[in-house]
Amino acid sequence: MSIYDCQPPMCLETIRKTLVSFSPAVADMPPERKPSAEINDEENFFVPPLNFSMVDYGIFRSGFPDTANFPFLKTLGLRSIIYLCPEPYPEVNMQFLNANGIRLFQFGVEGSKEPFVNIPDDLVRHALEVLLDERNRPLLIHCKRGKHRTGCLVGCFRKWQNWCLASIFDEYLRFAADKARVSDQRFMELFDVSGIKPIPSQDYLKS
Amino acid sequence: MSIYDCQPPMCLETIRKTLVSFSPAVADMPPERKPSAEINDEENFFVPPLNFSMVDYGIFRSGFPDTANFPFLKTLGLRSIIYLCPEPYPEVNMQFLNANGIRLFQFGVEGSKEPFVNIPDDLVRHALEVLLDERNRPLLIHCKRGKHRTGCLVGCFRKWQNWCLASIFDEYLRFAADKARVSDQRFMELFDVSGIKPIPSQDYLKS
């Protein structure tokens, strides 16, 4: 018996109708991401990128990854990266992406501009659509420090997940800390998620 | 074709040997946890518990959940809760657990004692073993505020995952913020993860 056989496929519609959403079962748990014993020495510790965290199943967030973070990033099995800065992606990072079959989605949101509300709403909307497309996961969202631009996109995703604003801001503040911007929070408050729908897995499996 | 059919079972040993660990595929992604349109109004926003976050696939952390958090917790499809306080679990929380088939693992770590290093190491060790047992996931780790006791257990888990101490502390500090304790960090630094092994899914599926 395979561990992938013990969970019957669930109907997405059923889940939506019942509010009690999917209960990930044994079938959906990847094996442990524990490296083998022989590499478990001081020189082989993993270094996640600055401000790294898991957002949801197959969705991660962080600041800008550098070469020291590449061995760790490999363990995530990424399919895509959502990069939220206008600057070109560094050559060494592009090489890492190419070597690991990771697709880059760049949305050039200016980081220096305050307030963030001046940033075209549709850029964040497009980034959210990429995020909601299951074909792109596992994916990593990052900007420079993983605070403002990344925080806003994650906040819009939480809004789409129907989180209350207090909890969305609480999460934003955990990463932005003393660099938090009221304008970012206002952007999330105003962001309209109605009409944004994910591409359900069924649709692309048929294609 | 089911979305659960497209990923062949992987050999855990292969993954351990290659360091490049499991790449979660479409098969491992649960459907969206988006509530149905008809409940998407102001009265039905989800309220995650204080300091809520996802730690890894099927592992969540938070402060003490109250009744306002129950609708949100239902969406996580929890199988277990690791509760790190010595106080009895409140009746209303027990009712929620019973109604949803969630098993409670209580490890009574005294929260008021400083430094945390006085807490028997074996309590955290047992909690980590529960955490590493895939049969218990999805699971939620919580104490009172989701800062110290929860932070230490998550830190020990990160150590087991071979994260560098700097990144472990960075994550701990994100939740503990101005309540951070050097003694907690020292506890994580000293905690010995050698010899701690997860129960691989293969083993219990045979039983």
From TrEMBL, chains A, B:
Classification via Pfam families: Y_phosphatase2
Catalytic activity field: 3,5-bis(diphospho)-1D-myo-inositol 1,2,4,6-tetrakisphosphate + H2O = 3-diphospho-1D-myo-inositol 1,2,4,5,6-pentakisphosphate + phosphate + 2 H(+); 1,5-bis(diphospho)-1D-myo-inositol 2,3,4,6-tetrakisphosphate + H2O = 1-diphospho-1D-myo-inositol 2,3,4,5,6-pentakisphosphate + phosphate + 2 H(+); 6-diphospho-1D-myo-inositol pentakisphosphate + H2O = 1D-myo-inositol hexakisphosphate + phosphate + H(+); 5-diphospho-1D-myo-inositol 1,2,3,4,6-pentakisphosphate + H2O = 1D-myo-inositol hexakisphosphate + phosphate + H(+)
Record keywords: Hydrolase
Transmembrane stretches, start-end: none
Origin: domain of life: Eukaryota
Coiled coil region boundaries: none
EC identifiers of the protein: 3.6.1.52
Occurrences of domain Tyrosine-protein phosphatase (ranges): 51-205
GO cellular component: cytoplasm
Alphabetical list of PROSITE patterns matching this protein: TYR_PHOSPHATASE_1, TYR_PHOSPHATASE_DUAL
Gene Ontology molecular-function annotations: inositol-1,5-bisdiphosphate-2,3,4,6-tetrakisphosphate 5-diphosphatase activity; inositol-5-diphosphate-1,2,3,4,6-pentakisphosphate diphosphatase activity; phosphatase activity
Presence of keyword ATP-binding: no
Similarity annotation: Belongs to the protein-tyrosine phosphatase family. Atypical dual-specificity phosphatase Siw14-like subfamily.
Name of the protein: diphosphoinositol-polyphosphate diphosphatase
Species the sequence originates in: Sesamum angolense
